[in-house]
Write a structure and sequence with these properties.
This protein is of the alpha+beta class and about 110 residues long. It is built from five helices and three strands; from the N terminus they run H-E-E-E-H-H-H-H. The protein has one domain: Ybab, Chain: A, CATH 3.30.1310. One of its GO terms (molecular function) is DNA binding.
């Protein structure tokens, strides 16, 4: 059980540090998100600043969606090795969330 706790703590730390970046296909913007998909950085090129708001909006949304999808995929891969080991913990301790609950990811 101690090994599982240590492994879960390490995964939580890795998830807290996880950042993924994606660029829009037109290369006007780059978006960085954390493991939960929350925006942590937005870079707009000089060419992007000169575009219309609608073009820039589409580029930002596209990059944000790509970065979020990548973050979810990476965090799910990080959680997968310990998810079966920690799945029974919420049942052992009432109201205790599993690591998947903490990060909003479930293998389906």
């Amino acid at each position: 059980m101690e090994q599982q706790r240590a492994q879960a703590a390490e995964v939580r730390k890795e998830l807290a540090d996880l950042r993924t970046t994606a660029k829009s296909t037109d290369r006007l913007v780059a978006v960085t998100v954390d493991a939960d998909g929350a925006l942590v950085d937005l870079r707009i090129t000089a060419a992007g600043i000169r575009k219309t708001p609608d073009v820039l909006q589409r580029s930002i949304i596209e990059a944000a969606q790509a970065a979020t999808a990548r973050a979810k995929k990476q965090s799910a891969a990080m959680i997968r090795p310990i998810s079966s080991a920690t799945a029974e913990i919420p049942g052992l301790i009432p109201d205790a969330p599993g690591i998947q609950d903490s990060y909003g990811h479930r293998d389906t």
